[in-house]
TrEMBL record:
The keyword Flavoprotein applies. GO terms for biological process: mRNA processing; protein folding. Heterohexamer of two PFD-alpha type and four PFD-beta type subunits. This is Probable prefoldin subunit 6. GO terms for molecular function: tRNA-dihydrouridine20a synthase activity; tRNA-dihydrouridine20b synthase activity; unfolded protein binding. One of its GO terms (cellular component) is prefoldin complex. It comes from Odynerus spinipes. Residues 18-275 form the DUS-like FMN-binding domain. Its cofactor is FMN. The lineage of its organism: Eukaryota, Metazoa, Ecdysozoa, Arthropoda, Hexapoda. Transmembrane segments: none annotated. It comes from the Eukaryota.
Length: 476
């Protein structure tokens, strides 16, 4: 039975929401956050065209269980047909669909997805209207956006969606050009005052305290977290950091439901970041098997898999593909074309997979360099503070006072002015090293962002390549 999300958003309390996150907000993670007071979950963004045409894409990108509710499936689409068809397919298995109009990644913009949709309010209006006409309420149709530099355009866009029949809006209060800068709270308030629709606010939600603050300041109905809940799945329950019980829950959930190792591993890396030393984080990052990860957790936290449970049976979209099978074949004029297409698709999957792994390796190396630079900055800060203290002590001395410096096991008498000059030189050198290290940290921070963007793009390319390969496989 469909949960009425609009009615849920009318409750006089902060409704908590897990954001759509590529690779991460899949079924196992949704099961985890629901244990820690998360009211609504989104799927990762799914490319609607692939979802409609490929059974393999559907099985890869969407699965659920009866307890996985309220659930909203988010799609990327650049036309009415793809989104409406995807909505009809997924409607029996979730409580609503959401159109991604907020993804700022270059690959998405090039495909006409994400924030590119903000340029086409009439198209988005048609998409919302079509789904509203084809799928009955209380099933919801919503849109997730970013704010534009011109707030008037943002307001016009939201008011257009309201007239089209959107159930609610999610607003990430950053512009498409922004990454981790503070959100535009004033713009969020303007949007709130301009529409009557329920509003979910997104951005800078790192703990329950600032979630409550944003909820009150924005006067919204719900609060969505992405990076915050990824690092701490218990965020909405009030835990400042991930509790060990949450890590235990993740181990148990992934033992019962089929979970790819990369997904299992990456979530643990995020969850345990604040629990581990740099050395241990690097070690955990490098592990390649579930068994080695479990051994690591047992040694460090005394966390062990619980006694075996029955496997959880996932629910997948079950549809009649007879109507789309014909459409799949129309682009192939001969058997020769088909086999060429099949071989190219398989090769494409392999090539993209290689690029993805290479990019992961590069990203891990940049992270190592970044944390190394942070440690060096900390050391230099300590050295500078020590020399500042020495300088203050020397400034209090008189010229006739004795000054000694330690060389090996011996104390050697030193001229006061010479001692002051030596300290000044050390401070100058340390300051220059600090400046150079700060510049390096800034450069590495930008590199991390660039690698994250590339990883998301390659992940989407990999999904699309898999979809094409599955299309050729289904024709065989």
């Amino acid at each position: 039975m469909t949960v009425d999300i609009v009615e849920l958003l009318k409750e006089p309390r902060m409704i908590t929401v897990c954001a759509p996150m590529v690779r991460y907000s899949k079924l196992p993670f949704r099961m985890l956050v629901r244990r820690y007071e998360c009211d609504i979950c989104f799927t990762p963004m799914i490319v609607a065209n692939s979802f409609v045409k490929s059974a393999k894409a559907r099985d890869s990108e969407f699965s659920t269980i009866e307890e996985d509710t309220p659930l909203i499936a988010q799609f990327a689409a650049n036309n009415v047909a793809d989104f409406a068809n995807a909505a009809e397919i997924v409607a029996p298995y979730c409580d609503g669909v959401d159109l991604n109009s907020g993804c700022p990644q270059r690959w998405a913009i090039n495909e006409g997805y994400g924030v590119d949709m903000l340029k086409h309010p009439e198209l988005v209006k048609d998409i919302v209207s079509q789904v509203r006409n084809r799928v009955s309420q209380p099933f919801t149709v919503s849109v997730k956006i970013r704010v534009l530099k011109d707030i008037r355009r943002t307001v016009d866009f939201c008011q257009t969606l309201e007239k089209a029949g959107a159930s609610f809006l999610t607003v990430h209060a950053r512009t498409p050009e922004m990454r981790y800068e503070p959100i535009h709270l004033d713009d969020l308030k303007i949007v709130r005052d301009s529409v009557q629709l329920p509003l979910i606010a997104n951005g800078d939600v790192k703990n329950l305290k600032n979630a409550q603050k944003l909820y009150e300041e924005a006067n919204c109905e719900g609060i969505m977290s992405a990076r915050g809940i990824l690092a701490n799945p218990s965020l909405f329950s009030g835990c400042a950091t991930t509790p060990l019980q949450c890590v235990q829950d993740w181990i148990d959930i992934t033992a019962r439901i089929d979970t790819h190792f990369l997904c299992f591993h990456h979530h643990l890396v995020f969850m345990t970041e604040k629990m581990l030393s740099k050395k241990d984080r690097v070690y955990l990052n490098a592990l390649k098997t579930r068994e080695s990860v479990l051994e690591f957790l047992g040694n460090h936290f005394d966390i062990k898999p619980s006694p075996s449970y029955e496997t959880i049976e996932q629910i997948f979209c079950d549809i009649d593909e007879s109507n789309i099978a014909k459409e799949r074949r129309t682009n192939l004029d001969s058997a020769d074309q088909f086999w060429r297409y099949s071989l190219l698709s398989t090769k494409m999957v392999e090539e993209v997979q290689k690029k993805l792994q290479a990019e992961i390796d590069k990203f891990n190396q940049v992270q190592k360099d970044y944390h190394k630079a942070l440690r060096k900055r900390q050391q230099l800060d300590g050295q500078l503070n020590e020399n500042i203290s020495v300088k203050k002590e020397l400034d209090l001395l008189k010229s006739e006072d004795d000054v000694f410096k330690l060389i090996g096991p011996c104390l050697i008498k030193q001229d006061l002015e010479e001692a002051k000059q030596n300290v000044a030189k050390r401070m100058e050198y340390i300051s220059s090293e600090l400046k150079r290290t700060e510049e390096l940290i800034g450069t590495l921070d930008k590199k991390q962002d660039a690698h994250r963007d590339t990883l998301e793009k390659l992940q989407q390319m990999f999904q699309q390549a898999q979809a094409k390969a599955s299309l050729s496989g289904s024709k065989a």
